[in-house]
């Protein structure tokens, strides 16, 4: 297959997970440029993987004529500017989670995407884990009936990761957006747009030097009247259960899926139609590829994005879908700052 769609990558941490594209015979994507810091390292990895262009200036990358797609893997607080500049350069854009860290930035991006008729997607790995995909299919096929209630969590002891990514404390990273985006987006995927939110947050002081809340409880009510809850906790001692989890309680059955970096994942279901209500379990092998063992999920969302560009389709998580999650997270912060008041989620988009 002809490699006729040039890809530029901003960020050479998880961004290096994309170099597989150049050897993937059934993909039209080709990584033609890398951007990151320091320049010496960018040049080194570019040479190692046979990528022809290396820079520490992202504007040089997005202005290259042979690059059609920009993939943003920079630190969270830089996403908005990198996305906006790439869209203004008429490039299709995929950004790793979170889309951005401010609702106003998400709305500006949505406006630009619509105006320029470009493809945009959020690389939210939870929608591409095999365990999560399996229970979504069960729901879509009617096996679980109508949703009654749902819950999701993302609990992660980040202390061993922070020395490798010190910006998380120095900036600091906003864990509401950078962490809770996973469980909240999973619920948006299953239950659509959030209508109201009530949230509480505390600073655990487990992460030395981290200045704001790092632990959250969030109650959500959706436009369709369904309800759910989220636990997001990042200033914790490693938990004795899977890092991520999603449970759907339906009128015909209950299903749960989990995920932990570099570990096998499972999906379990109880169907009301089966007498004695046995727990049926599906086991999925561990993903050992890419940063944090999420390489397979990244490959799935890159394939989804390529399909959207080539066949003029809607990506699974397009700009409008991405704004739904950012709007919910923004309302959660507003609720925390108000002492736990219920906040209406912005929906005028």
Question: Can I get a quick summary?
Answer:
With about 350 residues, this protein is of the alpha/beta class. It is about 30% helix and about 25% strand.
- Average of pLDDT: 97
CATH architecture of the largest domain: 2-Layer Sandwich
> Number of helix segments?
10
CATH structural fold name of the largest domain: Dihydrodipicolinate Reductase, domain 2
Strand content is 25-35%
CATH superfamily of the largest domain: Dihydrodipicolinate Reductase, domain 2
- Compressed to H and E, one letter per element, the order equals EEHEHEHEHEHEHHHEEEEEEEHHE
Radius of gyration: 20 Å
End-to-end separation in angstroms reads 38 Å
CATH class of the largest domain: Alpha Beta
- Main-sheet strand order equals 14-13-12-11-7-10-9-8-15
What's the overall geometry?
Answer: globular
| Main sheet attributes: strand count, strand direction, barrel closure | 9 strands, mixed
Low-confidence stretches: none
Report the structural category: alpha/beta
Strand tally: 15
Helical content (DSSP H or I, runs of 4+): 25-40%
Question: Can you give a write-up of this model?
Answer:
With 349 residues, the protein is α/β, with parallel strands linked by helices. It has two domains: 143 residues, NAD(P)-binding Rossmann-like Domain (Rossmann fold, 3-Layer(aba) Sandwich), CATH 3.40.50.720; 181 residues, Dihydrodipicolinate Reductase, domain 2. It is 30% helix and 26% strand. The protein contains ten helices and 15 strands. The longest helix is centred in the C-terminal third of the chain and has 19 residues. The chain is globular and about 60 Å long. The relative contact order is 0.15. The mean pLDDT is 97.
